[in-house]
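Dear colleagues,

As part of the handover before I leave the project, I'm documenting each prediction I ran so the next person doesn't have to rerun anything. This entry is a single chain, and its sequence is reproduced below.
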Amino acid sequence: MSLPPLSNATKQALLKLGITYPIIQAPMAGVSTPLLAATITNNGGLGSLGLGASNHLIAEKMIIDTQKLINIKNGKFNVNLFVHSKPNFDSTINSKWLNQLKPEFEKYKTELPKELKIIYKSFEEDENMLKILLKLKPPIISFHFGLPSFEILYKLKEIGSILMITVTNLKEALEVQNKGGNGLIDFIIVQGYEAGGHRGIFNPNENDEKLSTFKLCKLILNEKKINIPIISTGGIMNGKLIKKYLNLGCSAVQLGTTFIGCKESSIDKGYKEFLFNIEKSKKTIMTKFISGRPARTIENKFTDLEIQLRLQNVDVRLPDYPITYDAGKALHNAAKQFDEYGYGAYWAGENAPLARKLDAKEMLETLVKEWKDAERDTN
């Protein structure tokens, strides 16, 4: 399939990433699978694995399985890790939050968890995960929630991995430039406020500027101090929007919600129903209540609870991420036993109503066709 005219930035990205189309399937921890990632890569895009919530053994299996499924020469894929700050474990805050959730657990005849746990480590302190990466040498590694140490970045660069960092504002982009502008960091992933799932914001306690994908991309592209190429993500659901960001100057685009509903993903029955019936729930909401960090989800019983507690002026102090997530997952699992799927972490972008029921190969082909059509219509 021939491509529309490409900018130099996009041409260079295609060469570096080893892909035919400047379309990246977002990592999406808990949703992406080796089959989804490999299907996208095998058909000319860049597939990704979300390993941030996995331990090193699961991560190892997912990477190996993806390598086996990729059937094109030098086919690359991306693995994504979380670099969040080490959580402060406060038993008093944890207990208070569990007690505030007690009425919800009681609806489903389930006892409260005795205690909350840190359900996964930050990559920054997970030596076993680093060993797996150094051993398996994934071609592309991306990071969410911040920057790893220089030491870790250099080790990953030495094995030949392409490195990418997600940012949510200009300050973070400048920090990435200062740390990796010497060739250490290959791409900046620019996440707009429309994006589904967790905000990649480095410090969730700082004021979030909530910039749209377009405004933030434009801001970073116009910053002369930044020379690292950028990839846009957030709200991009069709070829027309792909054209918009590539023509703005982005090297590539990253899409998540677009691929959530593909049969190759691992979403459950509830997630699928919420995604494809979003007209009923009308919107997505940014919330900390599910995981302890800001994340955009399709509104559900968890977001209803948040609104209810706010209206009642209840003093809510959430445990640190990912401790809050332990409670969220426990409540979701309790409710599912009664066929209630309303407490799930149904991460989705602002444009989720545009989601389509296509398999991964069809989705990628459709996006490319739409992009080509949009370019042709302009010309």
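Residues 336 and 342 are 8 Å apart (CA to CA). The chain is about 40% helix and 10% strand.

All the best with the project,
I.
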